[in-house]
Amino acid sequence: MNGDMSVIISGFGGQGALFAGILLCHAAVIEGKHTTWFPAYGAEMRGGAVNCSVNISDSDVPSPIIDEADAVIALNDASQEKFEHKVKAGGFMIINSSLSHLKTKRTDINYIKIPLNELAQKLSKQPAFVNVIALGAFLEKTKILKIESVKEVMKEMAKTVSAKKAALLPNNLESIDFGASIIRQQMVTV
Amino acid sequence: METLVYKRPESLLKDGHFTFCPGCGHGVVLRIIAELLDEFNLQKDTIAISSVGCSIFLEKFFNLDVAGASHGRSPCVATGVKRCKPDKFVFTYQGDGDAATIGFNETIHTACRGEHITTIMINNTNFGMTGGQASATTLVGQVTTTTPAGRKAELTGYPLHAAEIISKCDGTAYSARVAITSTKNIMQAKKAIKKAFEAQINGLGYGFVEVLAACPTNWHMTPVESVEHIDNVIETVHPLGVFKDITAQENK
Amino acid sequence: MAKVLVKGNEAIAQAAINAGCQCYFGYPITPQSEIGEYMGKHMPELGRVFITAESELASINMVIGAGTTGTKAMTSSSSCGIALMQEALSAMCCAEVPGVIISVMRGGPGLGNIAPAQGDYFQALKGGGNGDYKIIVLSPSTVQEAIDLTYRAFHLALKYRNPVMLLADGVLGQMMEPADFGEYPYKDPDVTQWALDGANNRPARNIVSLHMPEGEMEMLTNRIFKKYEEVAKNETTYEDYLLSDAKLVLTAFGSVGRVAKAAVKRARDNGMKVGLFRPVTLFPFPDKDLHDVAKKADMILDLELNKGQMLLDVRSAVFGACPVEFYGRPAGGLLTPDMIYNKITELYSKLENTQKTEAGVR
To answer: A31, A36, A52: best mutation site toward chain C, by most C Cβ within 10 Å?
Structure first.
């Protein structure tokens, strides 16, 4: 993997697809990289599908709009359906097998199927961290940014949010490590 | 020894001449405003906001800084000025076609925000400058150039009662309707405008005074007939009175 | 200062605060509501003015009020909201009232949709307001440029006593990227010679837009158009990206400009002599510069998220120096790097074929 990476993160409202993208971008800034985050926004944000396009690069990023992504993180079945064709040949797609039982259609990309909801439930007794677990897996797979950078972002953010949200910091830190360990320990077929 | 019994207000331009039609009410009201600004010693600290209609040429009469506003937007321009210059005195001078018709939304919201500005609205129940068309305050039955058979309620509804509506807004400190049909009424009108000015000076909220004024040219009446028409007809629809005065409680 | 990750809309709002904007008047509309929300939080904290107006009519007229006192003020809106402001923009030009208007374009016509678009080029540049007037229009293509041009908008508004519009689109408003706020770099002119603050020991002033005496309005209009010539002379700005040897020159403004850059990069990697001419000031439009570029080029390809609006200014600038093609998508359809690249390839091979044919004939 060279220094350039484009990823689309998609899910339904509330799964934190947009937030996962923001975490990535902040981490990219910490590492001195160029980055863009572009959301599909507006009416779609209320319960429907949401997604964001993230570019990370060692040089200037001209277009925030992605034709073909190096990777897609699909947090539900609708996202898998919508973005499967947007993965670059040779790229990969993380599928949330807890919420998607769709057959995969392509042979020129890799699929990483992770039962994100079950794992999140087991790990922290709530499904709120599917996005962060997926992000951990993505980073471990691509090594585009250091997990530590994302953790630093999380710690910084915890300082500025409500106490209730800040209390979730340990779960977030644990979830991203756990996501990475899924790939490292080959707990899923890659 | 000489005693000064009449003086041209400092707030009027020395070489300014009113250019209104004979019998028109604008000149009287502008004179009242100028006198009050002098009495409050505000000439140097006032920014007047003109509007669209016969009320527009303030800079030709007043020795005051004047900002012009588009149709109905004087209260917004006044809001912008006052928020930037809270220590200045800011008033809008509008007609019924401006403040009560095209700009009534702005008037109401300015009242609800409790802006510390004052609006003087001349109500002559028609669009005077454009030639006497029906406005929001036109009486049922009134003949205008756009209601040649008289305003019909079933077609164009009923007159809007600005001072009463503005009095219902929480940010309004003072709202009244006055007329300038007699010396007594003119004194009353001056008292009301003074009250509305004081509401601003004392930081109490929005002041609104609706002045029933004659438009002999468009009413096709003599000045005398116009005055009688206001007293006998218009006041039965747009009654005179103070509809809100938040200082009244304290005075009792 | 270090770069921070910031959303386009919030970058514009913070830049306005840094520029010394004392008043924000606005009415919510997607895709720019974050500007109002950001101002609603920060302006009162700073002791500055924030009002959610009853309409866009009201907000721009509040800007006028503030502007007549020489105070830096702004409003922000999107397509249909900006439509409501046209009367006031005309009045501001006539009465020479400064003010900053942020326009974050969405899909139209009508209520349209809330997707990014560029259908309001005509609205900004050709105006829906009455009479002869020009507003200065700045077009950012990155979040960094949105900051820099917001600073510039406040400065130019006071420098020329004219409304200045920052014409952004939903892509730029909603996207995030790292940017450096730096500091407001301009020294603003003195306003005390004309601003309204009460006729204290000086003759009364007025700032109005009605001029009835015969000839007065004509004189005034000629005078403000002289001013616009000054604006054109001093402020015209564009980005030159690989133009020196370009046979095919792309023209694009705003977010399309940066997307086009990605396509130009790829075309260059594949040996095609393609460049990008991106106007940064839309008024003043860099017409002389574009004409010079067109004289050396074989073809211009104008790219916009509309049915061809800047196209008119491009054609007028090119004035027959080379053919002008158009490629665009209206009402919320986006141009991607691939789409632009494919169009480049199509036109470039046409150009080469024509040249080969011509050579053959000779």
So the answer is: A36
